[in-house]
Every structure is written in structure tokens, then in C-alpha cells.
Amino acid sequence: MKFPQPLARGRLVQRYKRFFADVVLDDGTETTAHCPNPGAMLGLNHPGLGVWLSHSDDPKRKLTHTLQLVEADGGLVGVNTMNPNKLVAEALENRWIAEVSGYASVRREVKYGGNSRVDFLLEGDGPPLWLEVKNCHFRRDGALAEFPDCVAARSLKHLKALGDEVERGARAVQLFVVQRTDCEEFDACHDLDPAYAAGLTEAAERGVEVLCYACDISPEEIRIARRIPWRGARSS
Fold first, then answer.
1. CA spacing 20 to 30 A to 158: which of 8, 133, 165, 222?
2. Rounded distance between C-alpha atoms, residue 152 and residue 113, angstroms
3. pLDDT at 179 over 70
4. Using one digit for the tens of pLDDT, what is the confidence trace for 76-92?
């Protein structure tokens, strides 16, 4: 996924009310950017961190800039939670994720689990595949990526819906897109959301497949790059 325009670099002044970030650009311009991330952004919200913003000329937008990348731990981290679905759509089109390739059709935002909508429904000759995507950018223990970084009740609901689809005879995949380049493993965040961690294990026991893919990231492009193992699979 290439950014449509060059990103502007700056320094984070503060992130507040979840969806706002004050930034001083490298040219000295002060701006308030949209922060498309409802999570805690632990480790990525400290004043002074380098950040990269995209710009929009859409006159309907109240904020012209959007926070895309944060410089942390010697690398770039993608914090825009709208991007993983775009990354997965690109990967599906190019068959970069072998475990979910080979389906004739891909539909997005298909209703399931009562009042939820799955990110992707893949269909072909065999059973349909229900594919849910989650963004992961939290790291605190060496090269371990963790999800979530706060209580994620809605994400837990999605796990249960995926398990229900497996019991109906379909395939179901929970795919974590790790928008970092410095992680070699993934696990659920047991201390920040023990219910979700338990739910992920339960979902796997019900037959939901857990996939984790890390990204290559630059100020020009983000791309799904390589699979990393789920630590929880060792005990599931």
C-alpha cells in the first residue's frame, strides 16, 4: 500500500481525546492531526516522538492531516487502524498470504454474528472463509507483538462469531496485522485484557485459525511481508 502523497515528518506534542494529535512539523508549522486509532497507543504517544503525517486536500475534512507512522524503538510503527484492511485487500489480490489464497471471490463487510460485519468473506469451491483483521502495534517485551493494548470487548465478540462459523462448517481466520518491523512473535496481551487472551485460546480450540503477519514499513509504503508465530499456539 503506497501512500498517495509524500508524508510530512514532525514531532508529537500530545495525543488527546483518542482521535487528536498536536504536531510540530519539521518546517516549524504547528498542526492538529486526526489520529485514527481508538486504542491506548502505549509506547507510541510520548511527546517528542517523531511522527509522519499524510495530507488531504478534501475541503470537507476538518483536519487536513492524519497521523500514519510513529518513530519508536529505532523503527517505524503504523498506527492508523484503517490501514490493515487495505493491506490485507492488497495481499489477497496478490496472493501474498498463502494460507488464505486460492478463493475465487472476495467480499468485504459481510454481515455475520448478529449485528457484526466480517472484514472479508472469501468464497470458492470449498467451504467459505470468514476473515477478521485486527491491527497490532504494541510491543514491550523484546520482539513480542501483543494485542490488544486496552480492553477490546468488540474484538472478543468477533472471536466468538468466528467460532460459530466454524461450527457451521466454514473456515474462519483471525488475522493480526503487525504494523511493525521489529517483532518476531505475537501473543495476546494477557494482563491488559485477560478476557480477550482467554477468548483467543478458546477460539483456536473451536477451530478458528490464528495468523499473524508483520509488515515492511517506510514513509512511502506499508506492505504485509512475513508470517510470525503465535506464541499461544504452543499451549493451545
1. 222
2. 17
3. yes
4. 999 999 999 999 999 99
